[in-house]
Design goal:
This protein is α/β, with parallel strands linked by helices. Helices cover 26% and strands 24% of the residues.
């Protein structure tokens, strides 16, 4: 019998491997797997990219002597899949190879799996242990679990504020001001890295108009996220950077103007219509579900950020505090939760704030 300390050691390695897939596996979960024989890892792997082989397959393929599989234990941080998607079911493969024991971090609560993989393994005579480092296994897939259990994406709020608590100077129609720079190049690069890790990025009309952001990963080697912009009355200029061909862009407009024509230069721009006056967030999340978007970074402005904060529709906030003062301007959003982590970035600092959810309440 393998004691719990050893099981946890191997499961921790699975979680470390799973994290290597961050930004590349969605809408699939991040999964790492090991094959252990006589207390020695003889194969390991992780799910590298959506559409490619799953973690269990990669771990099994890494085993040189396949005869050892029939006396080995397979570790995986998430229940093996039981359905045919872009790849065959992992549970069926494990059963067919007669791997006698499987240790699982947590069950897969997605409706198309939800215990079915475990049933296949047990029916094949496999000894199955579930719940080893369960909390940690859920946290690593917080985006996946939020999407399937709460029917909405994992929501990350991000903004930069000054020492005296402002996110922008006051701007007027007669005196527009170029985008205000609060932090530094380190934070800019980090933000672009974050964009690569999430599926979508969202801003409001005022931010799009005032800052004309690109919302890409141009300062980090990675993929661009879906760009989502609230433009209730379709008043934003087609010449803005978010309407270029660098990434897919979804405009959220009001259904009252559904018949209003709007032309763009590129085919990667789409318009979705919702009722801004009733059940707005429900309709928005339904769109995310349809698009299979499991995570989104909300980068402003203040009105949009405060909407999600006031309606408690957020999971974590990442707040940069720059070494500047504006004296007056647009007040930064306020969150009652205290920061759980703090990091220095040159003369700026980064505060990480987590909402009290089952996935990240450490």
């Amino acid at each position: 019998m393998i004691d719990n300390t050893i099981k946890e050691k191997y499961m921790q390695r699975c979680i470390e491997l799973a994290r290597l897939g961050l930004g590349n596996t969605a809408p699939n979960p991040m999964v790492g797997s090991l094959v252990v024989c006589d207390n020695k890892i003889i194969g390991e792997g992780y799910h590298r990219k959506c559409g490619e082989a799953h973690a269990e397959v990669n771990a099994i393929n890494a085993v040189k002597n396949k005869e050892l599989l029939q006396k080995s234990t397979l570790y995986v941080n998430l229940e093996p899949c039981s359905h045919y998607g872009k790849t065959p079911p992992c549970a069926n493969l494990i059963a067919r190879l007669k791997i006698p024991e499987v240790v699982i971090g947590t069950t897969d609560t997605a409706s198309h799996v939800s215990g079915k993989g475990i049933e296949i393994l047990k029916h094949a005579g496999c000894k199955v242990t579930v719940g080893v480092l369960e909390k940690e296994s859920r946290v690593v897939n917080k985006r996946f679990f939020t999407f399937h259990e709460k029917k909405r994406p994992y929501i990350i709020l991000k903004w930069a504020e000054t020492l005296d608590g402002f996110i922008d100077v006051l701007r007027t129609k007669d005196h527009p001001i170029k985008p205000t720079w609060i932090t530094n190049e380190f934070s800019k690069m980090l933000v672009h890295k974050w964009r690569d890790e999430e599926q979508a990025i969202l801003i409001g009309t005022n931010t799009a108009k005032a800052d004309n952001p690109s919302l890409t990963t141009r300062n980090w080697p990675g993929k661009n996220p879906f760009r989502i912009v609230f433009d209730r009355d379709l008043k934003l200029s087609s010449y803005l950077n978010i309407f270029n061909k660098d990434a897919e862009t979804i405009i959220i407009a009001d259904k009252s103007i559904k018949n209003k024509s709007k032309k763009f230069f590129y085919s990667n721009i789409g318009i979705e219509f919702v009722d801004y006056n009733q059940g707005f967030d429900k309709q928005l999340f339904e769109l995310f579900l349809e698009q299979n978007i499991q995570s989104v970074i909300i980068e402003g402005g203040a009105k949009v950020l405060n909407y999600f904060i006031n309606n408690d529709l957020w999971d974590e906030a990442r707040v940069f505090v720059g070494n500047k003062k504006f004296v007056k301007g647009v007040h930064a959003p306020q969150i009652s939760s205290k920061f759980t982590e703090q990091e220095k970035l040159g003369k700026s600092k980064l505060l990480l704030i987590k909402n009290k959810t089952i996935f990240n309440n450490n």
